[in-house]
Amino acid sequence: MPAGTSWPRYIAAVSAMMLSMFAGAQTVHVFYNPLQDFESRIESEKQKLLIAKQKDSSAAVAPSTATSTTPSSTLPSS
């Protein structure tokens, strides 16, 4: 095992680490309530994305005033 520890000591240490990780995550959720406004945040981000897409598509549809013409001097002669 790592660092010369026995299996029982290693399993006990990993179990204690996992328990403290779960307890810490639960503490965060109890005190800070990170998922309380989850649905409203998703809806506001969807609205922002929709507005951004509409702005991008309206800018892409606008006609260009520049025309691309090739001068006759660069055309190959036939």
TrEMBL record:
Extent of Low complexity compositional bias: 57-78
Sections of the chain in a coiled coil: none
Domain of life: Eukaryota
Claim: Transmembrane helix is one of the keywords in the record: yes
Recorded GO CC terms: mitochondrion
InterPro entries for this protein: BRAWNIN
GO biological process, one term: mitochondrial respiratory chain complex III assembly
Keyword field contains Transmembrane helix: yes
UniProt KW keywords: Membrane, Transmembrane, Transmembrane helix
UniProt region (Disordered), positions on chain: 56-78
Name the UniProt record assigns to this protein: Histone deacetylase 11
Organism of derivation: Plakobranchus ocellatus
Annotated TM spans: 12-32
